[in-house]
Model the fold of this input.
Amino acid sequence: LERSASSFSYSSYHTLEEIYSWIDNFVTEHSDIVSKIHIGNSFENRSILILKFSTGGSNRPAIWIDTGIHSREWITHATGIWTARKIVSAYGKDSILTDILNTMDIFIDLVTNPDGFAFTHSMNRLWRKNKSSRPGTSCTGVDLNRNWKSGFGGNGSNSNPCSETYHGPSPQSEPEVAAIVDFITGHGNFKALISIHSYSQMLMYPYGHSMEPVSSQKELYRLAKKAVKALYKVHGINYIFGSISNTLYVASGVTVDWAYDSGIKYAFTFELRDTGRYGFLLPATQIIPTAQETWMAIRTIMQHTLNHPY
Amino acid sequence: QMNFTGDQVLRILAKDEKQLSFLRDLEILKPQKVDFWRGPARPSLPVDMRIPFAELDDIKGYLESHGLAYTVMIKNVQVLLDAEREAMAKARR
Done:
């Protein structure tokens, strides 16, 4: 029997093969609104696939969402999958989402680090980096969230290849990062970027590499506050919010700093829920509640992006 | 698949910047022994770190010697991983 996207268990974690198979079924079943784009290949030559949600038009303003850049944060991939299904099920019913999709396209990169994710299933559940290797070191992997051009190599990243926060030899040296940079830059009309991590219940905006407030700090602060409030209303989970460097710590070469410096004003990163007991091993029973509350925050950011063109 | 039997995740709430610096030192001194799940950021935020079973006594001793109080967030990482695998297998069935 062929599986379909509707028989997929959204309340369970899945392997890379299962997710890619789900993508194919999902695209087939919702071909009027969803398509799959192959934007590149990982270091170990796995496909990097993104979903495009569009109701037509060409080169519309767009919103980017990525999940799983740190492969062990399985709740983020699961939340991304649930969100994708939510977008197709809410279109035509939820007036806010319908307005957004009638004007903008949404792109979701569900498995941003496919090699790392496959490795978490086969060898080391707690693997975080990608799987690139280089002559001269026996240590494997680059922290893909330190490999972006903005602030590359600065505080909060590490030049030691054995470190969990190794920034890599040069900005965008990693194919997983380069594929996204090329795609977003080539598209040229992204207005929001949301990068999803787990697990410390935060919603943050640039900068990570500097304590200096960004020029849109006030607006981003107000929007983060609103998004966190919307999230809280679903299951009563409290998030803290602010700039990365002020809320969490200084981190250089991160996705949202690059996005902001590349002209994408609404650049946010989530740290999804933490029950204080499980860390990266959040039980699958919490996938749907996590996704539900995250959706409300994402929807708030997308709505603001729609209503505040720039 | 790497086995995490006996590995623990400790949660530490540093009282001040000085205590945080001891945790940062740990990150530098023993990078292979400690896996920070939530790194030392600021005193108001907890620090979570996974310690391999073989290193538990050493690291706990280090924390105690610097007056860093900790709680055990996960007593045995492998137990959670086994439950996670079982849940996935069940969902697949």
Q: What stands out?
A: Chain A has a mean pLDDT of 95. The CA atoms of residues 145 and 254 of chain A lie 5 Å apart.
